[in-house]
Design brief:
Helix content: 25-40%
Number of helices: 8
Structural class: alpha/beta
Order of helices and strands: EHEHEHEHEHEHHEH
């Protein structure tokens, strides 16, 4: 795949201090369009994203999956014939946007249709992931290996997938189960995938999921139930 048309989707909820940095660090020579989905933020997330040149969409119903689905709907109706690779990255500046080049390389070379950026394989800044996050990733990836026979090391949100493969997956989850749904469905469809090591740093601001006991418990429950849902 020579010079593929790459689009980046960035779900964002109250990330006015971080999203602009994410947008600014995306390698523009590789990407056709950067799309930030404002998930009903109460701050200046949209303004920060627009300053960096991103297209901004608005999704009123909160939920990580809802924001991602909004971005996909935009691709279907606005960029259907103009997108070959879709990259997902968080808006909190914990991932390194310049690693997009590493994520799309296995797709460009034809080795994979989906690539997961693995924080477990990369270098993690001290404190960037909580103990429950690390344990939850280990438990979820272990269950996927035992149940589906596929080896992952992470459920990290930083990932790339071909547009056609993404459409085939028919994504449905509206909240915390989004990433694991994508991986489990890809395995069930025998989709070629790879993991690449990505570095991870402390996010800007406060995590709405791992930063609270309620968020951590709800996310863990949703991830585990999603794994069994697609048996």
């Amino acid at each position: 795949m020579d010079n593929p048309k790459v689009v980046v989707l960035i779900p964002a909820f109250n990330e006015e201090n971080a999203v602009g940095k994410v947008v600014a660090d995306i390698p523009k020579h590789l990407v056709d369009e950067v799309i930030v989905i404002n998930n009903n933020s109460t701050d200046k997330t949209s303004e920060s994203a627009k300053k960096g040149g991103a297209t901004v969409l608005f999704e009123a119903t909160k939920g990580y999956g809802n924001a991602c689905l909004k971005g996909i709907d935009y691709l279907k109706h606005t960029r259907k014939s103009k997108t070959e690779i879709v990259v997902f990255i968080d808006a909190d500046y914990s991932d390194y946007p310049e690693d997009i080049e590493k994520l799309i390389e296995p797709i460009r070379s034809g080795r994979a249709k989906m690539v997961i950026g693995s924080r477990a394989l990369g270098k993690r800044e001290s404190g960037s992931m909580t103990v429950p996050q690390v344990f939850g990733n280990w438990l979820a990836t272990t269950l996927i290996k035992l149940i589906y026979g596929a080896k992952f090391t992470d459920l990290g949100p930083f990932r790339a997938i071909t547009y056609s493969a993404l459409m085939e997956l028919n994504m449905q989850d509206k909240t915390y189960g989004w990433t694991v749904e994508m991986q489990v469905k890809a395995v069930k469809q025998k989709m070629a995938f790879e993991e690449v090591a990505v570095d991870y740093r402390n996010r800007i601001g406060f995590s709405k999921i791992s930063g609270t006991v309620k968020g951590t418990v709800l996310a863990g429950y949703k991830i585990i139930t999603t794994i069994f849902k697609y048996l």
